[in-house]
Design brief:
The complex is a heterodimer of chains A (about 475) and B (about 375).
Chain A: H1 5-44, E1 62-68, H2 75-83, E2 90-97, H3 103-111, E3 113-115, E4 129-135, E5 143-148, H4 153-163, E6 168-172, E7 177-178, H5 182-191, E8 196-206, E9 211-213, E10 216-219, H6 226-248, E11 259-263, H7 264-270, H8 280-294, E12 299-311, H9 317-337, H10 348-381, H11 387-415, H12 422-438, H13 440-455
Chain B: H1 2-12, H2 18-21, H3 25-78, H4 84-95, H5 99-115, H6 118-130, H7 133-141, H8 146-158, H9 165-169, H10 177-190, H11 208-219, H12 237-249, H13 256-262, H14 268-280, H15 286-293, H16 299-312, H17 315-322, H18 330-342
Classes of the chains: A alpha/beta (about 475), B mainly alpha (about 375).
Chain lengths: ~475, ~375
Amino acid sequence: MNFNFFEFIDIASFIFLTYGLIIISGYIFLALYSLFELRDYKRKNNFKDEVALLQSSHLPKISVLAPAYNEEANVIENVRSLLTLDYPSFEIVIINDGSSDNTLDSLIKTFDLYQDDVLYHSPIATKNVRAVYSSRQKAYKNLKVVDKENGGKADALNSGINCCSHEIICCIDVDCILERDALLKLVKPFLNNNKKVIASGGIIRVANSCIIEDGRIIKVRLPDSFIDRAQLLEYFRAFLMGRMAWSRIDGLLLISGAFGMFDKKTVIESGGYNPATVGEDMELLVRMRRLMRDKKIPYTVSFVPDPLCWTEVPKSWKVLHRQRNRWTRGTIETLSLHKKLLFNPKYGVLGMLSTPYWMFFEWFAPIIEFFGIIFLLLMFIFGQINIQVFLVFFGVVYTFSVLFSITALFFEEYSFQQYKKPKYMLLLLRTALLEPLLYHPFVMWAAVKGNVDLLLGKTSWGKMTRTGLSNPSKPNID
Amino acid sequence: MLDHNMMLLHLTMGNLPFYISDLPVVLEINLVMTMVFVVLTILLLSLILYLRVHKNSQNHRRKKLNLFIIDFINNYLFNEDFDKEKETRNFKNRHLRTSLDKQIAIDQILVFAENLKGESSASLKEVFYGFGLKEFLLTKLTSKAWYKQAKALNVAYQLNLEIPMTLVDSLFNTNYKKLRQQAFLYYLHMSTENPLGFLDKVEIPLTLWEQIYIENGLKSYDGETPDFSKWLHHDISSVVIFCMKMIADYNQFEHIPILLRFLHHQNPELRQQAIISLRKMEEPELLPILIHNFNEETLLIKHEILKTIGKIGSEKHLKSIGKFMVTEEPSLEVEFKKVALQKNLEASHFLGANFNTIKYDNLPY
């Protein structure tokens, strides 16, 4: 076999170019669809008459499920904040997932809890539930605490699903901050749709540096550090561009574990969260969608772009690395578990667009990018390309990354304009210029490492240290 | 194939400047794309800047005009020396020139309308007409954009403005949900005798959200409460369900016999709602029928029956159900035991011998 090195370079260049062009076209379509979706959402929700609906006794009851593992420092304040949500009928179920600190004790003491011999059916198998607690105080009558053996987030949520009373469940991270009207806004798609809605997701906003009082965002501020701001831009891109677009074509594959609402019956029928994966949020939604398709029941998954849920993003590179590593493993696990969907026309948009997109653009993209960079460097080192060529390749990737972030900034400006100060806009612009150089290579490496770790059989979540949002002046303990 | 692609690319790039077209084709493409991205980035940045400036100037205008309008309306309502006709004309000519100005005026009038009743409310309407806002509203209502129509209807019902009903009638079955909701609310607020008359014209199912909107609208309706039984035989089941809910909410006990007939309806959703409404009204005839039908019912309705026994039933009713529960779903067992506990009874006394507690199916992952 005659191997021609120059031909190989040509072919490789064209492969990278074609891949790049496909990615660019994909992103352009996402941007356009998001723009239309955001425009329509704004038009539909430009009325102030919905608050009055909170007085209705016909709104469905909601169970808010929040797993807690070693959350002693913040759990009380978080629960207090959840108890003040504006919704006529809801219960809060805190699942203490075998915490080794005093999470349970402080909950028992603060909310005057007693062991309740409540009866419930457990359609989903979970680790042993030790006890279910209710409060003696009327003010906390909608609070329930489930104490169980440690089994991970998915297992904890499954216990919550078994124990909760209502047919619509809202799964959240206990440390996230919800806007007062979050439940009403998230439940709306369930009630205002001719198709059965199996899930509805909300946008996640970055709370780092925001001013928080009594578990509420008082003032939205742009994060101080570069790493936080880079993640903020990333969230804009993921939520305002990505998920809005997928929502428009009903191809959403992921509803963030930090804030999502589900039809309990469909969740149970699908088997609940899968404790064997680290990407349990994505895996559940894919399984639910698959079930509905297999049963030929018309359904939809909805997405609400209002800023309803605020969370703390990793403040250190180490924690960020762990998080991205886990996300990558979760994506691969889900795609592998549901490989039957891939290019399967039986599953419609899900099979022909969503799963291929996730495979090629979310799973493969960091790997291809990594090898692309290695390839470019090798060519440069072996004198196959000169500095001009190197700069041309670098230029196209860099300008596209900046364009993508600026597009997301434009969407934020067009839709909710949370960062009003001109100084914030300049800082975000600077972040958009620096992010492809300083931040993106890091998350790309974390994703590549996630692939390697999965091959090596790593299955752990990785410790996610958070400093807590209630007191912004607290030092980072990680 | 590769050569063919290169040819095509060369052809399409034939008109490029020399410093680009002299490069290898892969580089040419990359360079062109870089330039396109830079141009697009600059364009988007300009758009962001424009949006900022535009929103800020709108807010500035809103703040300024609001002060003028508040001052004007206060004078109009409470200053006896105020020359209403002349001042209105002057204000309109001086301040209400653009669509934004008119929209700001409408928004401010709505704020006043929320807090004023009777004579003052009539005066506000005069201001509205005097500013020529009715014409502005009608233009919106007849526009092709659904969101403009919806906004116009929203303003119209809040200010009790008469608009041709023919314009509203056609919107009861539109696919734009928000527009449909506003049309319902307009009809409801403007009607003097039959606030739910629009239900006769509804041909598309009501969503639960729309039902809640209508329910909420009825709370502020000043006229006589409608007779909800009028629509219990509507072709659309969601309309029937809504009326059953309202019968219970408004305690229209005289319609209980019709609701009881729904317990034998072939549509399980209607049967379920009939049970819920009759349970709310604590109808004593309900339980014997439910217990008789229990074995033939769907799982969902069996749950409703158990809830009903829990709320208005007795030990005797629970016992009658127990014998039917041998092979039922485990979730029913839990519901049954909950009801037994509620009544301070030992559930095992009533359950069949083969009754088994929960089994796990193989999970799908």
